[in-house]
Specification:
single chain; alpha+beta; Alpha-Beta Plaits; SH3 type barrels; five-stranded antiparallel beta sheet; four-stranded antiparallel beta sheet; 11 strands
Length: 171
C-alpha cells in the first residue's frame, strides 16, 4: 500500500462537518478504511461574551476546507471529489498536491512524535512561530513537556524563550 499524505479539499462554506461525515460514510460503505487515515475539520475553542455571559464556542480555523490524510489513487480521488459539498482538491487545476511536513506542523494538525537529540549549548534555529528564523543556543531541555529553552538575541538583549521540540532545526 502507498504511503498516506495530507491533502486539502475545498467545500461549500458551512458544510465542512457535513462533508467530513459524508466522506466517512462513503468510506465505510465501500470498505475503503485502509486508504484513509484521518479526516479533519480544524477547530479552535474560543470564549465568546454575549449579554455578559461567557460561552465556549468552537470556530473553524480554515472555513471552507477539510483536511484528509489518505492514499491518493484514482478510486480515492473519485470518492472524495464526488462527495456532495466538495468543490475541488486544493492544487493547480484541482490536481491534488500533498501538504509538506512543515505545513502540517505549522498548522498544528499533526505533531510528529520523536525524541530530541540535542545537547545543552547546541545552536538551533526556530522554523515556525513568532520567533521564526531566530537562531540561539539551547539552555535547558524539558523532555516531559517536550520543550526547549533557548537563549536568543532579541533587540540586542539576551532573552530566554521556551519552544516546543517540533519548531526546532539543528544548525
Amino acid at each position: 500500500m502507498d504511503e498516506t499524505k495530507w491533502y486539502v479539499v475545498h467545500t461549500y462554506s458551512g458544510y465542512e462537518s457535513k462533508v467530513k461525515a459524508n466522506i466517512e460514510k462513503i468510506i465505510e460503505n465501500r470498505g475503503m478504511q485502509e486508504y484513509f487515515e484521518k479526516i479533519v475539520v480544524p477547530v479552535q475553542d474560543t470564549i465568546e461574551i454575549k449579554n455578559n455571559v461567557k460561552k465556549s464556542v468552537q470556530r473553524k480555523i480554515y472555513p471552507g476546507y477539510v483536511l484528509l490524510k489518505m492514499v491518493m489513487n484514482d478510486e480515492t480521488w473519485y470518492v472524495v471529489r464526488n462527495t456532495r459539498g466538495v468543490t475541488s482538491f486544493v492544487g493547480p487545476a484541482s490536481k491534488p498536491v500533498p501538504l509538506t511536513d512543515e505545513e502540517i506542523i505549522s498548522m498544528g494538525i499533526e505533531i510528529p512524535d520523536f525524541e530530541l537529540d540535542l545537547d545543552l549549548g547546541e545552536i538551533v534555529r526556530i522554523i515556525t512561530g513568532p520567533f521564526e528564523g531566530s537562531v540561539g543556543n539551547v539552555k535547558d531541555i524539558n523532555h516531559q513537556k517536550k520543550t526547549v529553552t533557548i537563549s536568543l538575541n532579541v533587540f540586542g538583549r539576551e532573552t530566554q524563550v521556551e519552544v516546543d521540540y517540533h519548531v526546532l532545526q539543528r544548525m
